[in-house]
């Protein structure tokens, strides 16, 4: 009976899914307003009382898109004429109409609504002669299906028109938007195993070797669809990559003998194994604020071409910072030589080094 009810539930949900047409926009990259055409119009309404004030609203409207509800939250002034402004709470509505790059003829939805992350506007402003140039960097997630995300970049330069109310009071400014480039993609979560085959992932800050990392394949994720050149771990590109079966997602490995470890580690699905320059990864962290034994999560990102259209993947794993002999370490980081991590320095070397370090530590204690 239980099984029958389960099957009925599956049937019911399949029916619901089949009835509701896919609501996702078509993925891909595009540019609006190319070849001299105008991409749209931007507005800044001085709801906060004046230019650059908290609460000001940013809007942008063009052919098939409308951004509004983004309110000024914070202005940074890194240089004499440059500003970095954060707007929060924006919504981007894309029309689902023929001819638009994100048009999906299978979707019954008339619009695709994206909830935007904080929008960043980088501005350069000069008073004499008056000139304004800015770039809007924005990204967000599809409201109905946050796996679908959008990245946008839009630019402007010129002298904006002022917007006046009935009493001739300045209530904002506005002008044309030059190009708008964007990408809609699907964000796929993946399983990452730093130091494959080891549950704990200690990284000695003095290690001059390589950090082995596996991007685990599964029935749903074929690592052969990954573009290895697109991969970044904590922003760092891998030194090299290979296809091997070294791990299985969802099964943290117990402390077992090497032989059993192999049995646990392989699942028949190829994994993408990667080697990173350990010092390059460490340089991406704020090492000064980290103590011996601290856990740090590293994020691995990249692109794959598996599913229908553009997709990116993201996953993370945690390393344990091993910090000792700090004064020596600082010297080593500064004198780091590229050749130290040459191609003939295999993983086993690095692991052997780590093992040696552990043994030395053991002897000292
Ligand atoms: Ca691991
Ligand atoms: Ca595997």
Name every ligand kind in the structure: calcium ion
Q: Please, how many helices?
A: 5
> Which residues sit in consecutive blocks of at least 5 with pLDDT less than 50?
14-19, 326-365
Structural class: alpha+beta
Shape, per Cα inertia axes? globular
Radius of gyration over alpha carbons? Answer: 26 Å
Q: Strand fraction band?
A: 35-45%
Count of beta strands: 21
- Which sheet architecture does the biggest sheet show? 6 strands, antiparallel, barrel
Which range best describes the helical content: under 10%, 10-25%, 25-40%, 40-55%, 55-70% or over 70%? 10-25%
Query: How confident is the prediction overall: mean pLDDT?
Result: 83
Strand-and-helix sequence, N→C? Answer: HEEEEEEEEEEEEEEEEEEHEHEEHH
Q: What's the N-to-C terminus distance?
A: 63 Å
Task: Provide the domain count.
Answer: 2
How are strands sequenced across the largest beta sheet?
Answer: 4-5-8-9-7-6
Structure write-up:
With 365 residues, the protein is an alpha+beta fold. The chain folds into 2 domains: 21-187; 190-364, no CATH class. Helix content is 16%, strand content 41%. It is built from 5 helices and 21 strands. The strands form 2 sheets. A 6-stranded antiparallel beta barrel has the order 4-5-8-9-7-6. Strands 14-16-19-18 form a 4-stranded antiparallel sheet. A hairpin with a 5-residue loop joins strand 11 and strand 12 (170-177). The radius of gyration is 26 Å and the shape is globular. The termini are far apart. The model is unreliable at 14-19 and 326-365 (pLDDT under 50). One calcium ion is lined by residues 216-217, 245, 247-248, 267, 269, 271. The site of one calcium ion has 6 residues, from strand 14.
């Amino acid at each position: 009976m239980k099984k029958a009810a389960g099957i009925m539930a599956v049937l019911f949900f399949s029916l619901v899914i089949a009835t509701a047409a896919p609501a996702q926009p078509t993925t891909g990259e595009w540019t609006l307003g190319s070849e001299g055409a105008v991409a749209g119009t931007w507005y800044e309404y001085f709801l906060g009382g004046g230019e650059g004030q908290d609460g000001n609203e940013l809007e942008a409207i063009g052919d098939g898109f409308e951004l509004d509800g983004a309110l000024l939250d914070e202005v940074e002034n890194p240089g004499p004429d440059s500003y970095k402004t954060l707007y929060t709470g924006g919504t981007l509505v894309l029309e689902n109409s023929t001819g638009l790059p994100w048009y999906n003829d299978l979707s019954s939805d008339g619009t695709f609504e994206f909830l935007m992350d904080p929008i960043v506007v980088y501005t350069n402003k000069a008073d004499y002669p008056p000139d304004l140039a800015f770039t809007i960097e924005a990204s967000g997630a599809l409201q109905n299906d946050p796996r679908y995300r959008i990245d946008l970049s839009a630019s402007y330069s010129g002298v904006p028109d002022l917007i006046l109310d009935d009493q001739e009071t300045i209530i904002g400014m506005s002008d044309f938007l030059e190009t708008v480039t964007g990408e809609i993609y699907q964000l796929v979560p993946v399983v990452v195993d730093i130091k494959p085959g080891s549950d704990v992932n200690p990284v000695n800050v003095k290690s001059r070797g390589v950090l082995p990392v596996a991007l685990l394949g599964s029935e749903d994720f074929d690592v052969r669809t990954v573009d290895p050149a697109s991969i970044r771990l904590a922003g760092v590109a891998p030194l090299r990559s290979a296809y091997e079966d070294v791990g299985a997602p969802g099964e943290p490995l117990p402390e077992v003998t090497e032989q059993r470890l192999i049995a646990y580690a392989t699942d028949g699905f190829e994994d993408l194994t990667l080697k990173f320059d350990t010092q390059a990864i460490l340089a991406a962290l704020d090492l000064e604020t980290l103590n011996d034994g601290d856990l740090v999560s590293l994020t691995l990102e990249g692109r794959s071409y598996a599913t229908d259209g553009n997709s990116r993947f993201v996953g993370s794993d945690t390393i344990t910072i091993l910090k000792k002999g700090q004064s020596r370490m600082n010297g080593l980081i500064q004198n780091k030589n590229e050749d130290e991590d040459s191609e003939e320095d295999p993983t086993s070397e690095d692991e052997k080094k780590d093992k040696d370090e552990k043994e030395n530590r053991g002897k000292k204690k």
